[in-house]
Amino acid sequence: ADTFGEAPLVLNEPLQVDITAIADTALLIVPAEPLLALFDRDPRFARRLLTAVCRRLQGLVADFEAATVHDAGERLAAYLDSLGKDTACLPAPKAVIASRLGMTKETLSRLLRTFMDQGLIEVAKREIRILDRARLSAAARSSASSRG
Question: What does the alpha-carbon distance between residue 107 and residue 101 come to, in Å, rounded to a whole number?
Answer without folding.
Answer: 10
